[in-house]
Amino acid sequence: MKICMVGAGYVGLVSGACFADFGHDVVCVDADPSKIERLHAGVMPIYEPGLEDLVRRNVAAGRLTFTTSLAEGVAGAGAVFIGVGTPSRRGDGHADLSYVYAAARDIAANLTGDAVVVTKSTVPVGTGDEVERIIREAGCPHRVSVVSNPEFLREGAAIGDFKRPDRIVIGAEDEYGRETMREVYRPLFLNQAPILFTGRRTSELIKYAANAFLATKITFINEIADLCEAVGADVQDVSRGIGLDNRIGPKFLHAGPGYGGSCFPKDTLALLKTAQDYDTHVRIVEAVVAVNDNRKRAMGRKVIAAMASCGGGEVRGKTVALLGLTFKPNTDDMRDAPSLAIAQALMDAGASVVAYDPEGMELAAPMLPGVTMAANAYAAIENADAVVLVTEWDAFRALDLKRIAREAATPLLVDLRNVYNPAEARAAGLTYVSVGRD
Predict the structure, then answer these.
(1) pTM of structure
(2) pLDDT band at residue 311 under the 50/70/90 scheme
(3) Fold of 2-198
(4) What confidence tens digit (pLDDT) does each residue in 199-214 have?
(5) Which residue has the higher pLDDT, 80 or 263?
(6) 4 among known catalytic residues
(7) Could you give the 3-state DSSP secondary structure of residue 119?
(8) In this structure, how many other beta carbons lie within 10 angstroms of the beta carbon of residue 85?
(9) Rg (CA), the chain
(10) Average model confidence (pLDDT) for the chain?
(11) Which of 125, 100, 117, 128 is nearest to 206 (CA)?
(12) Measured in whole angstroms, how far is the alpha carbon of residue 246 from the centre of its chain?
């Protein structure tokens, strides 16, 4: 089947490359000419492990192409996926659906035959209804079914998630849409990936509910970590103890500086706005959003307090090294990364900040104009009055702790991801501070 993917960003590019790897003929369309030029040159617009090789292999096989022409991409396509951005709308927090609706209008004007139009972007309940209305009122002469097919890709593990999914959710209102989507995902039947067919509105809500629940788990264990510090308990043991309960599970129970990224912050906020529009309450999610927003800057205060207790006195004029800037490892995504609030809190207190990240510094630099970017981790650490581990990249999991103690101006390591063993860090000569542990 020919598939057109409208939008060659994170969702569109990963999904398009994976569909091509399944054997479909895929055309990725994007309005940004420079992005398409880079893709033609084999340069990825995002960092995702394995993506460059996957794209190169399918381009060479002739199954994956890129264009700025939506007419070219849509012509003859049996399924047209909308994978454009839905950022939080400035001013009110609602999802900005202008790109989705613009894509729907362009698709309606360029279809050459019957097709299924699939919303892959994360969209609020009822968006599919509006997409259907736009296509119908455009006078499209062909049979068109509008389907919801949310993505559940983790940045840093997106290709594996796409090819070996926990589930595939398809919200369709007619048999034509369901049958076409079965054909699109037929290659995954070999892996016996469960396909859940629902109504379109239900499918749209599943995505938001899933992300809100995961954000809740993260926020819950972060608050438990604060309680652990107050009572002298160990949050990692607490996490293990409750995670061994099959009803709870161990994932997303790792204490840290709060969640960030492209999904959780905007999706929890969009869910709140949807609930308000329908005069209902999701008070747990309201608390999650508020607690997470406060936590990021609180981690900056945690570093300042650690420096004071380490005999450093005033933070003003001191240098802090941040290891890791992206919101999680194995991505270059800086959207709502905790490092942004942490760095700002430190600079507001008068500290100088030096940072290193294996992949995120190019995107981080314009977002952190007062931060000096270092060539490597040890260059950032040299002569620092505090070393703060913010993102748990593999490159930071086996640092030479004795070297840190020797080369930092003050041997203070604030580990916001609980990567290191406290006893080993202290044996190396470091004053060691972590989250939810002694």
Answers:
(1) 0.92
(2) confident
(3) Rossmann fold (3.40.50)
(4) 999 999 999 999 999 9
(5) 80
(6) no
(7) strand
(8) 18
(9) 24
(10) 95
(11) 125
(12) 26
Intrachain domains 2-198 and 199-438 with the same fold: yes
Alpha-carbon span 401 to 413, nearest angstrom: 9
For the chain, the structural domain boundaries read 2-198, 199-438
Residue type at position 150: P
pLDDT > 70 fraction of the chain, expressed in percent and rounded:
99
Report in angstroms the alpha-carbon separations of 62 from 27, 289, 303.
Answer: 10, 45, 52
CA 116 – CA 172 distance, rounded (Å): 10
Q: In sequence order, what are the residues at sequence separation of 6 or more whose Cβ sits closer than 8 angstroms to the Cβ of residue 438?
A: 232, 234, 422
- Residue 321: strand pairing partners: 354, 387
Element holding 273 (H helix, E strand): helix 264-277
Angle between helices 200-231 and 235-243 (to 10 degrees): 140
Distance in angstroms (rounded) separating the CA atoms of residues 136 and 146: 11
- 312 Cβ neighbours under 8 A, 6+ residues apart: 318, 385, 386, 410, 412
Q: Position 408: which residue type?
A: A
In eight-state DSSP terms, residue 153 is P
**199-438 fold:** Rossmann fold (3.40.50)
What pLDDT shows up at residue 312?
Answer: 65
User: Of residues 4, 28, 263, 310, which has the active-site annotation?
Assistant: 263
Helices (H), 48-199: 51-60, 70-74, 98-110, 127-137, 158-163, 175-184
